[in-house]
Amino acid sequence: MMKRTVCIxxxxxxxxxxxSCAFAETVSADALSAEEQRALDYLGEQLAxxxxxxxxxxxxxxxxxxxxxxxxxxxxxxxxxxxRERGTVTSVKSQSPWGTCWSFATMAAxxxxxxxxxxxxxxxxxxxxxxxxxxxxxxxxWFTTTALPRAEDYPEGAYPYDLSQAGEGxxxxxxxxxxxxxxxxxxxxxxxxxxxxxxVVKESLVPYGDSEGxxxxxxxxxxxxxxxxxxxxxxxxxxxxxxxxxxxxxxNYVYRPAGTEAxxxxxxxxxxxGISFCADLAMPMEPDAVRGRLMSRYGDxxxxxxxxxxDYVDLRAGILDPAALSDDDLQRYMEIALKVNxxxxxxxxxxxxxxxxxxxxxxxxxxxxxxENLVAEEEHDAAHTYLNFSGDKSNIYAQYTFEPVQANHAxxxxxxxxxxxxxxxREGHQPPEPGAWIVKNSWGTDWGADGYFWLSYYDxxxxxxxxxxxxxxxENRQMDHLSLLGYDNMPASIISSxxxxxxxxxxxxxxxxxxxxxxxxxAMTGDLNSSVTVSVYLLPEDAVQPTDGKxxxxxxxxxxFAGYHRIELEEKQALxxxxxxxxxxxxxxxxxxxxxxxxxxxxxxxxxxPEVFNARHQDDGVPPLKRYCKALVNPGExxxxxxxxxxxxxxxxxxxxxxDGDCACMAYDNLxxxxxxxxxxxxxxxxxxxxxxxxxxxxxxxGYILRTVA
Length: 710
Fold this sequence. Notes:
This protein has 710 residues and is an alpha+beta fold. Among the domains are: 15-66 and 487-678, no CATH class; 287-383, no CATH class. The strands form 4 sheets. It has a 17-stranded mixed sheet that branches. Strands 2, 16, 17, 19, 20, 22, 23, 25, 26 and 27 form a 10-stranded mixed sheet that branches.
């Protein structure tokens, strides 16, 4: 079990109702009925599809909605809307020098969401608190891409977490030499970390910079382990929205109006929305930062002197003006570039290049290709440019990706304009209809229109859409600690939802380590309008199945979007130290064919993936993997059950995937079910309880019901 104490300010509050269920015996995977085996085979077939997609691209799979049961509300939206006019959008930041756009977009969406929930503008928050509403991108990025520490790094008995989960998380691919801040990520990664109790944290506590406060990529950007589970605000819901851009069975782009409507729904609720798309420009960086990155890339070469390398890097970084160089100097730089880039046969020796051509070659990202090929590749890039701009800050920056390509950048939508004209986009490559999003970037205010740009509704790369909602509960602000019980500590690339015609149940078993109050549970959903029933059982010491005990409470809640969701129990359960509890989830999903039952699980590319993936893609131009993930799933933690039949340990289920095609390259984590407990003494100090029965008390002031478990 993963238990950690999280310092918090705020806790969630959700409505609930009642339901219950019961089960029979626990069985091993080799003692399944024919019906159960067919269900497991079907599960494996369904999980193979996202695994294959991930092994095909190497990027996180962002669209989890294979089918939509959507009711349009298009006539309820205004023509224009801008959260900036509400004053709840924070200042534009710069992610330089790292590839941390996903963390910046998550924090930008979160800041606007929190301000809206507080009922404050950014200026009012600053006046009231004395600091800007500014959340730490560094904290999320570091701990999402840094695995839990190894047990051997601590003295015996000093490991701060459960030893059974030691080392779980994200790792660099051996030999890739990629900094943790450049692993990349998406909103699934962000949400799984936030749900795990990693942030959000105020920028003042963990500022974006190295140990000396500088944006130097060569500096020390690491964070101490004791900061992992800090929180300033606590996640309540992470809503995965349908993407406006979808792909049909033939690989063709299809516009999805439901995606556009879903984003507008969240914006009208005051929540800015994280979105991914294909940026055709590289992040602008200061010349010194570019120089530092290039020195790191080429610094291990022994083919040139340090002085020659420094000169070449100055040229590439724009510090040295090539127009000031003589023809002989340019020729010398060509020779240095060949050595630095490890090009053994000079493709330009007989090309008879003039001055301008030599400068073009030296500055090109395609250096080393024959000149004709280099020019053709640059012209191809120019023909596939999606952003329309003049470079003037007063100009409107307008992006329309006119072909279905893979997203590579994460940003934040803060508004829309249905009448934004098609003429604002690149001539010859304009969207079919007007309409665009107002988008906040993370490249500073010197880029775009003061850091913003327009993004067409019909952009063919839009994916990975998510909004974030936080807990703002004055009552729980006074409690100092939260014990968050959960086993799924690996950042997730995929949320998989497998639909069954018959009920399928998911469960985790936890042990309570101190006198506590169980107040919330959480679950992940993978479909629209899912109805989640949570049942909590008190288990005897020798119980091996999650329902082999006393039913304490059952409650049901419906969620419009897929994602992470926190559910409040109507009766809070006071549990003594040593108590064992089983938390059982039943998820119902309405479809066009009637109600189906969903089993939701999470996964990422695992330790076997890099070798297979890199061999598969060595000649097709797909970049090699930068990271993989390790999941630690132990017997007796997570279980599933079909209908009202046997409980099957999740370790047996995922073991069946180990030699199964692309699934063998995946890391399948524990089932995403968590328990939220608070110290009993803090709860009793906070409330003034009056006894209602032998085991139940209520606080008349707030209606908080506490049930004491014997």
